[in-house]
Amino acid sequence: MSQPLPVSGANVQVNLVGLTKNDYRGMPSTLCQGCGHNSIASQIIAALYEMSILPETVVKFSGIGCSSKSPTYFLNRSFGFNGLHGRMPSVATGALFADTTLRGLGVSGDGDTASIGMGQFKHAMRRNVNMVYIVENNGVYGLTKGQFSATAEVGLTLKKQGTNPYMPVDICMEALASNATFVARSFAGDPKQLKELLKAAINHRGIAVLDIISPCVTFNNQENAYHSYTWGKDHEAPLHDITFIPAREEITVEDFEEGTVREVTMHDGSIVLLKKLEHDYDPTDRWQAMRVLEEAQRNNWLLTGLIYIETGRPTLTDLYNLVDKPLNRLTEAELRPAPETIDRVNAMMF
Amino acid sequence: MSQRIVNDFSITVGTVNGSGSSTANTTILRALFKMGIPVSGKNLFPSNIQGLPTWYTIRLSKDGFTARRAEQEIVVAMNPASFARDQASVSPGGVLFYDEGIRQPITRDDIVAYPMPVKEIVRKDPSIPSNLRDLIANMVYVGVLAQMLGIELDKIYQALSFHFKGKQKPIDMNFNTVKAAAEWAAASLEKKDPYFVEPMDKTNGLIMADGNTAAALGAIYGGVQFAAWYPITPASSLAEALNEYLPMLRKTADGRQTYAVVQAEDELAAIGMAIGAGWAGLRAMTSTSGPGLSLMTEFAGLAYYTEVPVVIWDVQRVGPSTGLPTRTMQGDLTFVNFISHGDTQSIILLPASINECFEFGWRAFDIAERLQTPVFVLSDLDLGMNQWMGEPFRYPDVPMDRGKILWEEDLEKLKGNWGRYLDVDGDGIPWRTVPGNRHPASAYFLRGTGHDEYARYSEEPQVWERMVNRLKKKYETARQYLPLPQIEEHGNRIGIVAYGSSEPAVREARHLLQVEHQLATDFLRLRAIPFHREVGEFIARHEVVYVVDVNRDGQMKQLLSVEYPELAARLRSIACVDGLPPTARWIVDSLIEQEVKHESTIAR
């Protein structure tokens, strides 16, 4: 069981579980050159490799769209379920009951989540399903050639589509309103921050929503568009400088000046270290999270960072008092009531 | 008084929905059952919480027939709003018991009418709190019926005791009213009608249950591990029965669960969760009715194409649209058979009794995991929500079949060489792994898009063709795992084919055809789709085969005609839907009418 694949060559670097970065890779990407989704896939690979998480303990989920194709491009050694448009959350909800030691890693898009999948998205939040829920958010439908999505900003003008007349959906605001326990926003053009946020999200117990602005280089990357590389680079407003420190590593807070960092301790003792930038920001304060999202919306900032975190709430499967053994390994003797029980049941049928 | 009529009539009670009459009605049903008299009880209720008229009809049949009858010899009228209609519904020579507080005229002189001073009897008992008087009032007709028909009071006590789970206070309060009403009737009413009940011994060793409870219990004995559902009439009580009985039967000694039941946000999510769980190696199910199933179609196609085991109970009601949500129909047959876009073929089980609901409850998981495909179990409101007599549930007689599943040690032996959709055994059924398997070669990426034998994305024309043809082969293989049809055959000219909850009506109809028309018939009851070879052979051996469908279009006849085009000319349809459970009389009349019509055509 769980034998790592043999490592070839003497100088190949391995992580704590003896795997190389290659063991975390997927198939070659078939998305456009420069697509934000590809850099997100790279950071997922890097984060999991660096965290020394066995790929067999991760299960990938996705819906339909460019974003939902991307789980093919990382973690070949993880199971994956590429299901229906907008229905990733329900599949993940059911599948994660089978073995609660598994960590769900969902990748969706703005169409898949904020339009057709809005209902399931919000219900996965309120159930606190134990998974990372990444939204690769680019404001358009790529696979169907560039129609506006529900996260496109009002007034956005695209050559073939005209001008978007509707107000956008704010994924983080929706997640927060639905009682998500981890809400963050990042930008595919900021890989350093993205990787740290991914690590914190992966380590979180419960639902971790990562709204990642991920430019569509083919249909929506003009300079003035909210979801473009240029606009993002110019307007990104990070809440803090984030570092994820796994439980096993020693923290060297003395590197930081006193009063310049905030620490959030996660369920396993890992720490999210938040270095203050312009303002102090407390991501455990839901009121403040709501306010900062509202401010960002009004002022047109691309607000990034860990917006909200709550570490104590039980996950969905925690609520069920399940046996320790994974449900999908239970035997007939553990699943079928004993023969003598049938008389008791029949006695109740009247 | 004319000749005594014993244990062979129907009682219908008309009340106001939400007035608490169901306790009274099931008490009568259970008391009769305890007296050894074959009974069946059907709730004919509106889609409403409180206020609309509702009826409960009990049939007593010394000969053991349990189908609904249209005739109502005894009617109890408790609802002013339906009083005129209830009076009109009494069979000639029948009996009307009515709440004298209704104050509407008795207009028929061909029936016996007994007034009941409901309010007075309840008011006389000072121990009944005023807020419970309306509920307890229903016990007045229980007591009056008991006295006038001969229902044994100790059996009523047993029924109440069961209903209130031994809680003495409500048992006493209700039973005292029953007794007071019976005493009033003994002192005040003179028996003028010929209807009597008498103890028999025909229910010894039998149980009584509704199909939804039976299905849930079957699923529990089938090791159900995950159920997701969304409330819908008439399927809700199936999932609720899971919630009721799972804690009793499936918790470990230290109180831990080997199962999870999730109430989803809609049917899309319910089946999505069940498919996720089925994919991950759990015995997973969902239960719904037509409108919910309509929402589930896209997922059903995904599970068919990606080969995920999942069990879907469809407790059918009247459609299309919202239709008649509280009435019964065999309406989803063709829909389920062809469910989803593209080429699909469904595995369908057709239970006809509470015993088959129980059996298919566990067997459906074996079939789904063996075939790695959705299994649809088509029950209906009549079977699912009404009380039926039956043999005691039988413990599964075969070990669980978990199908072709590879764990770490299996993959070790194969040195990791396997393909998720490879047909290595030639039966169209591939091998699968499930998440949690820690072997580095265990994982695959399930996709609803085109894929090859190794689950890799493919748009190659020959790959698509190869994959869907293998699915077709699997569908052929499926037959050997499905319950055979039940056949009663004696070389008669006419055959009858039926399925599901119309079985009691068909059984009685065949009896009536024999007795009234000297017409002997053979019978085949379908229990699964795809059809077994025996079905075509049965049709081929008969000059004429009547197919009984509780739907407008004769959906089973349509499917049989497609399957056996060369035999289609022998098939005739007996099909109708009005929301009520079918009666034997309807089947007899339809069959005879068609026989006469065809004979005259031949004569001409």
Mean pLDDT of chain A: 94
| Low-confidence region ranges of chain B | none
Q: What proportion of the residues of chain B is helical, as a percent range?
A: 25-40%
Number of domains of chain B: 4
Q: Provide the structure class of chain B.
A: alpha/beta
- CATH class of the largest domain in chain B, anyone? Alpha Beta
Strand content of chain B: 15-25%
Uncertain residue segments of chain A: none
The first-level CATH class of chain A is given as: Alpha Beta
The tally of strands of chain B reads: 23
By DSSP (H or I, 4+ residues per run), the number of helices of chain A equals 11
CATH topology of the largest domain in chain B: Pyruvate-ferredoxin Oxidoreductase, domain 3
Tell me, briefly, the overall form of chain B. Answer: globular
CA-atom Rg of chain A in angstroms: 21 Å
Strand content of chain A: 15-25%
- Largest sheet data of chain A: 8 strands, mixed
Which topology of chain A does CATH recognise? Rossmann fold
Indicate the overall shape of chain A: globular
Q: How do the strands and helices of this protein lay out in sequence?
A:
The complex is a heterodimer of chains A (350) and B (604).
Chain A: H1 36-50, E1 58-62, H2 66-69, E2 79-82, H3 88-95, E3 103-109, H4 110-114, H5 118-127, E4 131-137, E5 140-141, E6 147-148, E7 157-158, E8 162-163, H6 171-177, E9 182-187, H7 191-203, E10 208-213, H8 229-235, E11 236-238, E12 240-245, E13 261-265, E14 271-276, H9 286-299, E15 302-309, H10 332-335, H11 341-347
Helix pairs in contact in A: 1-7, 3-5
Chain B: E1 5-6, E2 8-16, H1 21-34, E3 39-44, E4 53-61, E5 74-77, H2 83-89, E6 95-99, E7 112-116, H3 118-123, H4 133-136, H5 138-150, H6 153-163, H7 168-188, E8 195-196, E9 207-210, H8 211-221, E10 226-229, H9 236-249, E11 260-263, H10 267-279, E12 284-288, H11 290-306, E13 310-316, H12 333-337, E14 347-349, H13 354-371, E15 374-380, H14 381-385, E16 387-390, H15 408-413, E17 445-447, H16 461-478, E18 486-488, E19 494-499, H17 503-517, E20 521-526, E21 528-529, H18 533-540, E22 544-549, H19 555-563, E23 571-575, H20 584-603
Parallel strand pairs in B: 1-8, 2-5, 5-6, 6-7, 10-11, 10-12, 12-13, 13-15, 14-15, 19-20, 19-22, 22-23
Antiparallel strand pairs in B: 2-4, 3-4, 9-16, 14-21, 18-20
